[in-house]
Structure formats: C-alpha cells, structure tokens
Target: Universal stress protein
Amino acid sequence: MAAYQTVVVGTDGSDSSYLAVDRAAAIAGDTGAVLVIACAYQPRDERDLGRAQDQLGSDVAYQVVGFNPAEETVRTASERAHRAGAGKVETVVVDGDPVPALAKVVHDHNADLLVVGNRGLNTLAGRILGSVPAEAARKSTVDVLIVHTTG
Model:
C-alpha cells in the first residue's frame, strides 16, 4: 500500500482537536503528505450557541460560530502542525456542519486519510445526537483515523 498523499484533519479549536492535528501532522510529516487543516463554522449569532451550550453542555464546541474564529483556529492549528513535523500545510474554513464540511474538504483535495479526535464518542449528547467522529467514520469515502484525544 502506498503512503498517504493528502491528509485532512478537522479542528474546532479545542485542546482535544489540536491533539488530532498533532497526530495528523506527524503522519503527514512521516509520509511526505500534504496536510489540510479544516474548520467548519456556523454563521450563527452568539445567542444560538449560548442556548445550545445550556442544553447540551460543552459537547457542542465543535460548532465554531463565525468566519473569523474559524480563521484563527486554522492559523493556530497550522502553527502546531509545523511544529509537529508537517512540511506542507494548507488550511481551509468551510461554512456548514462539521461532517459534511469535512467530506467536502476530503473530496475537494482528493484526500486519502481523514483524521478526527474522539471527542463526543462517549458523551450523552454524542449518544443521543450522534458524534462528529462516529458520523465521519460512517460516511467517509476514505480511511478514517479517530485519535484518542479525550479521557
């Protein structure tokens, strides 16, 4: 099997998602792959996020609200990725929900590996609503690495 050529990793700016970025960057660095760091964002106002967090807790943190926070998230992730060994790093922010956004990035960049953190897999909200890593793994057309980023 040939080494991965393009690795996509999703981040929401949380500490756990940055751990997934670190792992994806190490893989990309080891294989010489291009690393594409993606952040999905919702063009919602802060009141919507506040209401969702009141109902679901911090498990909705993967819903980045607004374009500017998403840009800052991928900029920070890119800096981390370079420190973790990635040579070629691209960033992209996508308007929409995380899983369809990641699928679009994988498709648009002809990626062969998607990396996500395990955040939400073992939470109440994740069991009720479905988690990003579980849904991404179910719907992906490429290999998926779910990095253990939470306890």
